[in-house]
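Field reference: sequence -> structure
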Amino acid sequence: MKDKLLTIGQFAAMHGINKKTLMWYDEIGLFKPAAINPENGYRCYTYYQSPILETILLLRELDVSIREIQDFMKDRSAASLKSLLDIKIAELDRSITHLKALRETLCTHRQNMTTLLTMDLSKIDIVEKEERCLITVDIDKHTSFEQEVEMITAETLKYQLGRLHQASYGSMISVASLQNGDYEDYSRLFIEIPFLTPKEGLHTQPAGKYIRAFHKGGWDKIPLRYRAIMDFAAEQGLTLSGYAYEMGINENVVDRIEDYIVQIEIPVLAQRFPLC
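Structure field:
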């Protein structure tokens, strides 16, 4: 039965395509029918042609051009197909990575919007965070805004970040500086890229408990928020460590600096309790 001739309509239906596609493939010499009915001139196909057509359809689904497929069909072999598939698999892997990163970015924005809709700006609380890797650049009080932009741009290029919205950005100030009351002693800017794997040169933001608080408005009032955080830590008997991580969470829905909200997170050293 497998050598029985199929009409163009039957063959097209079997492969889930329009018969006009088969007619076009025939016209350009890409995929010819097995036979032409001498009585009516209709194209006819056999079951054995199915794997070849499915290969063509797969390549088209991978956005392989007609010209590339024609070249492959002229020299169809295991080696040529493997070479073509190697290229397309690499391209597909890059697309998957991009889509995963884009999804992670969307989830971050959605979480920020959820936080905005449910947050209590006056509240300071303790949250649990997972470890994450950050790209950082060193700054000090003398680093100009222009220099900061240049350094961030250089890092995004180094890590082949296509668009700025694919990452999250923020600043870091050491707990030591906060304890000394030096609230302008920012030492690093950070970039968080989805799915960044640990390696030398990256900053590891440790997993564990963090104090989380929010500041709304300009940066001139942020020292007041840090004083409140330090008072909260002292009242709770908490020991802070490392850096405070600041990140804007509503930049894409506000126009005025007065409405700008910064999320502040500071690691808390694990507390030891006496054994019973």
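Note: The chain has a mean pLDDT of 88.
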